[in-house]
Specification:
heterotrimer; A mainly alpha (about 350); B alpha/beta (about 525); C mainly alpha (about 325); A: about 350 residues; mainly alpha; ABC transporter involved in vitamin B12 uptake, BtuC; about 70% helix; C: 13 helices; globular; ABC_transp_permease (chain C); transmembrane transporter activity (chain C); transmembrane helix (chain C)
Chain lengths: ~350, ~525, ~325
């Protein structure tokens, strides 16, 4: 029989070691599908590591991919802290991108700082509104937010498709379904020339630091922590659970919306229906790996980005399906849950106890 | 006479540790056929742990349980298996009833009694057997009723029937009278007597001396996880048992007579809407004055929760007015109530009283975090929050690793002290104490009582909602009873006896007054 | 506009509604069984994907159709076992574990497909289940073609509704499953094993969901496409609430939903010239949200849903 005994106080080593352990477990488990695909596992991981970290190009690519992941990771982290399971970051990201395109592709023009501020606000507000709906349905009507946000992802995907095939379609796109391009004045500047690293990274890191300060040092953060850990006690103490949830929902959606702004205005330049390869869902893994710590999200996002970049080049080099990246990330999520158990509990194995004779 | 009856159950050298805590230490216990054994001890003495080991919820670290088989020979009981305990003829009535509320009484009773992999259930045979059992035991219940519709007393009947239906030879009851009216308690003990006369062995866990003295044949006293005495009930008295149970003389605070002052809380025909009587209040009127404690008694689930929510500021009256110190509170909100000088001690400290994963300091500041004292421009003043907690830890003698420890690490008594510090320290005008001593050991109970009486002395008006009738009489100047969402008039506690109170709790109008 | 509503009276419309409903019937029944035992199975989307892929693959590799169904059910059960290890044995968050299982199952299915068929552009086909022609029943006017000229899997879904309803209401095991979703302490106090009951329900429920997925590749279509489950799993979770955890109502909910979906397709043909097609495609998802929202308030959830049970803690 296996028994779990709660630990009274987990050591710091366990707390900080757990995500590392989770990463290792997921990579070990990912060897199984690789073996099944008939690949030399050691070689594959070698290619993966060098593909992610082995060149300047690879490193900048990791940074570029980490940028949206930090923001979607924050979206999940702050929501999960309040036990608001926002799984709709993917949809909120697209809505944010759509709002950025709506503002930044020629309808208005002005000086660059103003335009960039404008599209950021538009994207954040759009994402926030997108998440406020499910939040209201949860707190007022008890509708499970996981299901509503997941279903909204499909609705948003269709809506985006409709817009880029219809009203927002670029007449110059030779028939491809894509939006008109973002104006130069609204484009996020590159941080490093000739790479894909753009100013969205700064926004993302500032957002993470801001969230960390909010959660630890301010009254609203205090409320979010209390409501997340024990809604009944928070309510008894006079905190409005509804208001707190709405705040969390808005912030969470805004972060995901900003991720969309960054992708469309920092990288792609126009909106297509393949803007995000699942950054919204991967953000959940990032947040869990970070133990829902906003600062931790930065590191976790870089790790997950490295897995994506490394697995991509591995799949190209070894001709394995690129779905290996999603597989590793999914294994990562389950491994985090497992390693979390190890930090909170001691596992005791005991033989089935037998009655003792007198 | 019972001493000659055959032994049906024996516990030998039971030891159980939870981490550093020794819950049971080398406990031996023998049960004979047809006797009623009381397991007496204060909260935390290890009674429930011992019975959970007997029933297989826990596994003992040392020692074993032996049950007589059909031929009367003692056989070891496989540990850690409720199934084995049931098969050996042990039935347990948990303090928090183990019933599935949305299923019928019959479903609850037959659950797990027949082989699982059958194409249909043998309901008619079950009904026939239960009809006979109800006839013999006098425990009547509608088998097709949904449990959620039934009262606490009826639910307890289901629990006992569940055990009898499984042909239990040994019945264990954990604090069976905790939620019953005095009359219902008397009825329960009559039933247990007659069952014992038919050969059932009964163990009941209690910390109430009077029911131990009147209801048992033999008493085993547990203290600090050890069995400190085992004596025949006949010939023992309450004082002796009390001393055995506590192990020292407990200084009890005494309520000094005191003339009440001006009214602090006035409820005038207050109604609160709700789906059931638990959440509803109907035309409740009450006045509580400075320097008096008004006790609210009643069988649980009769609207006490609604009254507590009202006085905590969690619900707003749908009709009638609530005034505090002469000011009508039209829009109720916990923050407003705290600001208006209401100190609130919630019923369930783990659920409503504290955020387990947050620190002691954060929990003490929980209600007033928005005050100037603890924040500036929305940023928390950690120094002030910590200093406040350190004061409270000293003043209330909260045993803890420090103000930054998560509050869930504290024992029940220390957690309650932290909540007292939060509720009482700003000299509130009105105090709501909802089951303030539930689950606490004697020392902590005495401390809570002392603090409440001090507040009364200072001139606070106190509403005490309690199911513990000893506490009710000890602390209250006046007593009112909640029944089906209504509150009776209040009576001076000195003029009230247990019998009258019991009748009021059962909904009979008080003719005595 | 009259022509739009004439559609509602045609046999082909209702036959399509039942066809669309079939995977949802399996999905809702599976989700319902899990939830009755107290476990919200958010692995459903991934489990249906695995069912769709593995059932199809087995047939593609030469097995007969029914073996394919069994393979799909088995693979679903396997992922159900994984989910129950996380949610029941370890008592972890059912939300996060379920999503993890969905992500894992989906990517595992896609990866496996790509490993076996690395370079195909047009998905290879199999010969799927064919519509039956049951002698007497099929010739009942209207109902015959709607209900009985479907494939064998649709009939299996109907049968399963009855079996599950009877199982939950009438058998001792069904009672135990219902009780464990209401109050696991009560179940343990009666000597039953909470862990096994919940694990069993989740594994069985997952197997049923996976058959729903298999219907897509082995009856509705004849090949496997990426993203083909397209949120049907999440729709099933919403419909479970709408069906108030009753198998009979689940059948009703799924067919009602199927009717809306079929209507949407036909409406698109009639007025599609004026409105973008995406508007119509959104309808099923919007309906699911509406169903969930309207019924969440009045639903009486299994009391212990999403609450992990830890022995010796009450």
């Amino acid at each position: 029989m296996m028994r779990l005994e709660p630990r009274t106080a987990p050591s710091p080593l366990l707390i900080y070691g757990a995500p590392v352990l989770a990463a290792v477990i997921s990579l070990v488990l990912a060897a199984i599908p690789l073996l099944a695909a008939g690949v030399n596992v050691f070689q594959a991981y070698g290619v993966m590591i060098s593909g992610a970290l082995g060149s300047q190009f690879a490193l900048t690519e990791v940074v570029a991919r980490a940028t949206p992941l930090i923001l979607t990771g924050l979206a999940a982290a702050i929501a999960f802290r309040a036990k608001l399971f926002n799984i709709g970051a993917e949809g909120q990201l697209y809505i944010g991108a759509l709002a950025a395109v709506a503002i930044g592709s020629g309808r208005f023009d002005g000086p660059a700082p103003l335009m960039i501020l404008g599209i950021c606000i538009a994207g954040a507000v759009a994402g926030a509104l997108m998440m406020l709906g499910p939040t209201v349905l949860k707190v007022k009507l008890g509708a499970d937010e996981v299901v509503t946000t997941l279903l909204l992802n499909f609705i948003v995907a269709l809506f985006v498709q409709m817009m880029i095939e219809g009203p927002m379609k670029d007449p110059m796109s030779m028939g491809w379904p894509q939006s008109e391009p973002i104006l130069d004045s609204a484009t996020l500047p590159k941080l490093i020339d000739k790479t894909r690293v753009h100013a969205g990274l700064i926004i993302a890191i500032l957002a993470a630091i801001g969230t960390e300060i909010l959660m630890r040092r301010t009254v609203p953060g205090f409320r979010i922590r209390a409501v997340g850990a024990s809604p009944a006690a928070a309510r008894f103490a006079g905190m409005s659970v509804t208001k707190t949830m709405l705040l969390v929902g808005a912030l969470s959606g805004a972060f995901a919306g900003l991720a969309g702004v960054g992708e469309v205005a920092g990288l792609k330049g126009y909106l297509t229906n393949d803007l995000s390869p699942g950054y919204g869902y991967a953000g959940i893994v990032v947040a869990m790996l970070a133990g829902l710590s906003p600062i931790g999200v930065i590191a976790a996002a870089f790790f997950v980005a490295a897995v994506f970049v490394g697995a991509d080049s591995m799949s190209r080099a070894m001709t394995v399906s690129s779905y290996i990246a999603n597989l590793i990330v999914a294994l990562g999520l389950l491994s985090v849950l497992l390693s979390g158990v190890l930090t909170r509990y001691r596992i005791r194995w005991s033989l089935p106890a037998r009655g003792r004779a007198s | 006479m019972t001493d000659e009856n055959p032994v049906v159950l024996e516990l030998r050298g039971i030891t159980k540790r939870f981490g550093p805590l020794v819950a049971n230490e080398a406990i031996d216990l023998v049960m004979r056929k047809g006797e009623i054994l009381a397991l007496l001890g204060e909260n935390g003495a290890g009674k429930t742990t011992l019975m959970n080991i007997l029933f297989g919820h826990y596994v003992a670290d040392e020692g074993g349980v032996f049950v007589a088989d059909g031929a009367g020979a003692l056989q070891p009981l496989p540990p850690g298996s409720p199934r084995a305990a049931l098969d050996a003829g042990i039935g347990m009535v948990h303090q928090h009833f183990a019933l599935a509320e949305n299923l019928t009484v019959l479903d609850n009773i037959t659950l797990g009694t027949e082989p699982l992999f059958r194409l249909s259930r043998a309901n008619s045979a079950a009904r026939a057997k239960l009809a006979g059992l109800m006839q013999r035991s006098g425990l009547k219940i509608d088998l097709d009723a949904q449990v959620s519709q039934l009262s606490v007393g009826e639910r307890q009947r289901i629990e006992i029937l569940k055990a009898l239906y499984r042909d239990a030879r040994i019945l264990v009851l954990d604090e069976p009278t905790a939620v019953l009216t005095p009359q219902e308690s008397d009825g329960l003990f009559e039933t247990l007597r007659s069952l014992a006369a038919h050969g059932l062995s009964v163990v009941f866990i209690s910390h109430k001396l009077h029911e131990v003295v009147s209801g048992s044949d033999r008493v085993a006293v547990l203290r600090g996880g050890r069995k400190v005495a085992e004596i025949p009930t006949r010939g023992s008295d309450k004082a002796q048992l009390a001393e055995l149970m506590v192990g020292r003389a407990v200084s009890r605070s005494k309520r000094e007579p005191r003339a009440p002052g001006a009214p602090v809380l006035i409820l005038a025909d207050v109604s609160v809407g709700g789906a059931n009587i638990r959440q509803r209040l109907e035309n409740v009127s009450m006045t509580v004055r400075e320097g008096e404690i008004v006790g609210i008694a009643g069988v649980s689930g009769n609207g006490q929760a609604a009254l507590a929510n009202l006085l905590s500021g969690l619900v707003t009256p749908s009709a009638g007015t609530l005034s505090l110190g002469g000011k009508v509170m039209s829009l109720c909100d916990p923050q407003e109530f705290v600001a208006a000088g209401v100190g609130r001690i919630p019923e369930d400290r783990h659920h409503e009283g504290a955020v387990g994963s947050m620190t002691i300091a954060e929990n003490i500041a929980l209600e007033t975090i928005r005050s100037r004292r603890f924040q500036r421009f929305g940023f928390l003043k950690f120094g002030a929050i910590r200093a406040r907690a350190e004061e409270a830890i000293k003043a209330y003698d909260i045993r803890c690793p420090g103000p930054d420890a998560p509050i869930r690490q504290l024992s029940g008594g220390n957690m309650q002290k932290a909540i007292l510090a939060r509720a009482l320290d700003d000299a509130p005008r009105l105090i709501l104490a909802n089951q303030p001593t539930r689950g606490l050991d004697v020392g902590a109970v005495a401390e809570v009582h002392r603090r409440l009486l001090l507040a009364r002395e200072r001139g606070a008006a106190i509403v005490l909602i309690t199911e513990d009738l000893d506490e009710l009489f000890e602390l209250s100047d006046r007593v009112a009873v909640m029944f089906r969402s209504r509150l009776t008039d209040s009576f001076a506690s000195a003029d009230l006896d247990l019998k009258t109170l019991g009748l009021m709790m059962a909904g009979h109008d008080n003719e005595a007054a | 506009m009259a022509s739009v509503f004439d559609i509602l009276l045609t046999v082909s419309f209702w036959a399509a509604a039942v066809r669309i409903a079939t995977p949802l019937i399996f999905g809702v029944l599976g989700a319902l069984l899990c939830e009755k035992s107290g476990v919200l199975n958010l692995g459903i989307e991934g489990i249906m994907t695995v069912g769709a892929m593995s059932g199809w693959l087995a047939v593609y590799a030469g097995a007969d159709l029914w073996t394919g169904v069994v393979v799909a059910a088995f693979m679903g059960a396997l992922f159900g076992l994984l989910l129950s290890f996380f949610t029941v044995t370890l008592g972890l968050s059912q939300h996060v574990s379920g999503l993890g299982v969905t992500m894992l199952a989906t990517s595992a299915a896609y990866f496996t497909y790509r490993v076996i068929l690395p370079n195909v552009d047009t998905p290879p086909r199999i010969v799927p289940f064919q519509p039956l022609d049951i002698p007497v029943l099929s010739s009942i006017p209207f109902l015959g073609p709607v209900l009985f000229q479907q494939t064998a899997l649709t009939l299996l879904a109907f049968v399963l509704v009855g079996v599950l309803a009877w199982f939950l209401a009438k058998t001792p095991l069904g009672l135990a499953v219902r009780a464990v979703g209401e109050n696991p302490s009560a179940v343990e106090a009666q000597g039953l094993n909470v862990l096994w009951l919940r694990t069993g329900a989740v594994v069985a429920g997952s197997a049923i969901m996976a058959i729903g997925g298999a219907f897509l590749t082995m009856s509705a279509f004849d090949a496997f496409f990426f993203e083909m489950v397209a949120g049907r799993g999440w729709i099933c979770i919403a419909l479970t609430v709408f069906a108030s955890w009753k198998p009979g109502k689940a059948l009703f909910a799924a067919i009602l939903f199927g009717a809306f979906d079929a209507f949407q397709v036909r409406l698109q043909q009639v007025v599609g010239a004026f409105l973008p097609s995406q508007i119509f495609l959104m309808i099923p998802y919007i309906l699911s949200i509406v169903a969930l929202v309207v019924w969440s308030r009045r639903a009486s959830y299994p009391k212990a849903l999403m609450i992990p049970y830890v022995r010796g803690q009450r």
